[in-house]
Amino acid sequence: MKRTIKPTIRVIPSGGLELYTEAFGSPKSVCLLLISGAMAPGDFWSDGFCKLASKHYYVIRYDHRDIGRSSAVDFRKHPYALKDLARDAINILAAYDLKKAHFVGHAMGGHICQHIALEHPARALSISPISSGPIAKTKIDEIPLTEGEELVISHTWKLFTERKDGESLEDKTKGFMEIWKYLNGDFPFDEALAKTYTKRLLRSPVQLIAPGNNHEMIMRDASSGKEGVIEQIRTPTHVIHGNRDPIALPRYGRAIGVSVPDAWLDMIDGMGHMFFNKDLERKIFNIIHLYIDQL
């Protein structure tokens, strides 16, 4: 019989809001803070991933403001930006009485990692943006998209806009499965893993996971910083990206890797934007652990 490892749950105050957090492992270990992407609760980082990582680290995952079990925000009255989400992550560290952490962020979470490295460098032991892009203009922006890249973008957004949202939980879950499978790249799609995540995602109020939600609003300016900004990052940086990512095209992962001084870039063959595959989860954790171990 497998021993079930249950996380410790804490609700953390941050700027007048409440953030739902879960911690795995020993507080005596160095912290690995996992940051999800836009419209994604902390459950994006699967239980299996967190339990694997907790063998080596004190792992914390959390729901951003405006998703999952954290506070919702009236964005018109109280707008916020990525730097505010970076402050949320720092406030979580403070609430756990932790001075520093390794930050791992997926998609929007990778943008947040870069803000942390620039605005809170004393708190970051390292950052690992996954399936993400730079928070500022880079030389890559001067290179036009190829015909192949434009076709990928066109097909991806067509798939997103044509997805039908059913009324029942089963129908809604089915709609997400089509998207997740496409975003999974060439790796075998673990439908059970994706369904577990989707059912947890659907605990959120419907308006928080609908197109045009608050996270999507702030991501419209996610890469608007002036050229040269991310070159100022001095935090050890490990970029992980899939060469089959149809959302954050591979060129954007390379842009971080080339622009941040001494950054490591791991381009994973066959990986898409998501990783609903247990072998790929293990691979991603192992290369994160390998990078941290050599610092």
Automatic annotation (TrEMBL):
Annotated membrane-spanning segments are: none
- In this chain the AB hydrolase-1 domain maps to 32-257
Organism superkingdom = Bacteria
Pfam families under this entry?
Abhydrolase_1 (PF00561)
Spell out the PANTHER family in the cross-references: AB HYDROLASE-1 DOMAIN-CONTAINING PROTEIN (PTHR43433:SF5), HYDROLASE, ALPHA/BETA FOLD FAMILY PROTEIN (PTHR43433)
* Name this polypeptide is given: AB hydrolase-1 domain-containing protein
State the organism named in the record. Answer: Aerophobetes bacterium
